[in-house]
Give the backbone structure.
Amino acid sequence: MKELNQMTLTFSARSVNESFARVAAASFLSQLDPTLQELAEIKTIVSEAVTNCIVHGYAEGTGSVRMKVQIFEGNKVRITVSDKGRGIADIPQAMTPCFTTGNEDRAGMGFSIMQGFSDRIRVRSRSGKGTTVVLDKYIGGRHDGSNL
Ligand SMILES: Nc1ncnc2c1ncn2[C@@H]1O[C@H](COP(=O)(O)OP(=O)(O)OP(=O)(O)O)[C@@H](O)[C@H]1O
Ligand SMILES: [Mg+2]
């Protein structure tokens, strides 16, 4: 599948940057003319993925979060969020609804929300090395990307 456009951001794993990442992704993807609902879904996906890096990946320290947003032919968007934090030992367990290793503020619903608002989610992780979440989403269908 042909990549038409992409952007990559690297930022400190600080909670103030969660809203920055969300707005940056939405702003970049506005060229696809998404609906308000699609934009809200994209922002939520990015929020959940970035928050996980900050809260879980770097629970015991600090580091960087990388977010790549790609636009492919056929209105396909890929959002890749990665950290070099503590990693996930058991990915299927982590993706189970309501599973959390966090405190009482965590519902364990982040991965379920990412899954619900995207067309495909893949998670790669190695304990002690970090985590990468790849989210694919098709936008609209009203735009063929021919002017990109
Ligand atoms: N980037 C990450 N690094 C390390 N562990 C992670 C990462 N992302 C998720 N996890 C693990 O997967 C679990 C489930 O993540 P999920 O986002 O579904 O729920 P949560 O973050 O615990 O709660 P919520 O997202 O509802 O606030 C987390 O509790 C954590 O153990
Ligand atoms: Mg979460």
